[in-house]
Design a protein that fits this description.
Blueprint: E1 5-10, H1 15-27, E2 32-36, H2 44-50, H3 54-58, E3 61-63, H4 66-70, E4 75-79, E5 84-85, E6 88-89, E7 92-93, H5 95-105, E8 111-115, H6 124-127, E9 132-134, H7 147-164, H8 181-197, H9 209-220, H10 224-244
Parallel strand pairs: 1-2, 1-8, 2-3, 4-8, 4-9, 7-9
Antiparallel strand pairs: 5-6
Length: 245
């Protein structure tokens, strides 16, 4: 299961943090490191900070966008101290809940834990691509963690959760089968096209309709069969709209 848990770093500024991430991962049994548009990589600073985790560092995969890095994942959790974006509250998990969710769903398909740039964290648009957000409880007067420390803490929670898992259950897949991110993105494209075709969305003034609907479906988390049913409804709606036009 740990092999299916992906740690993603976006726009990492200092290569030393990439090396520290690799080291934090290896100490907790995680091996899948993905980098989205790092400022400098490969770099000697990354190698130095990785210490005995050069194997994780050398196998790190590079992506141009977050969409590419999470396309084959069924669950994406973003790290953020913020609980609201675009005036919408976001589904939040504690560090322990985050670890348990990742571990459980990694039995089915790849899952991802995403970290933003050191100074900015994840952007609103990146957070919108996550099913859940997670944060680390810290001193409310100074809740500041550098990215390497945050990665170490959350990787430890994942490792701890894996030790608690019952061996007999580890070979069982969860009953729910969730769609991959790339399948959800195709659904969102289909949904937006359909809503435009029936004049629910006005192209010149789209407002926040799709943002709200993305948040709704991310929270609802339709299963594969349910998503296929929704796609069928959209097809039927488009056919009816064409007949009546």
């Amino acid at each position: 299961m740990l092999q299916n848990i992906r740690i993603i770093l976006i726009n990492t500024f200092h290569p030393g943090n990439i090396g520290s991430a690799a080291r934090a991962m290896k100490t907790m049994g995680l091996i899948d490191l993905c980098l989205v548009s790092p400022k400098r990589f490969p770099a000697s600073e990354a190698n130095s900070m990785a210490a005995g985790a050069l194997d994780v560092l050398e196998k790190a995969r590079l992506f141009d966008t977050l969409d590419e890095a999470i396309a084959d994942c069924s669950l994406v959790i973003g790290t953020s101290a913020r609980t609201r974006t675009h005036s919408f509250s976001r589904p939040m998990l504690s560090a322990e809940q985050c670890a348990a969710q990742l571990l459980s769903e990694s039995r089915q398909s790849p899952v991802a834990l995403v970290f933003g740039q050191e100074t900015m964290g994840l952007t609103n648009s990146e957070l919108e691509k996550c099913h859940f957000h997670t944060s680390i409880d810290a001193n409310p007067d100074y809740p500041v963690l550098n990215v390497a420390s945050a990665i170490q803490i959350l990787c430890y929670e994942i490792h701890k959760a894996s030790l608690k898992s019952d061996c007999a259950d580890n070979n069982e897949k969860p009953e729910q089968e969730y769609p991959l991110i790339k399948e959800l993105e195709l659904f969102y494209e289909h949904l937006e096209t359909t809503l435009t075709d029936i004049d629910f969305i006005i192209q010149q003034h789209p407002g926040l309709v799709m943002t709200r609907l993305r948040r709704f479906f991310n929270r609802a988390r339709p299963e594969v069969k349910e998503l296929n049913m929704l796609r069928g409804i959209l097809v039927a709606a488009q056919k009816t709209a064409k007949k009546n036009s």
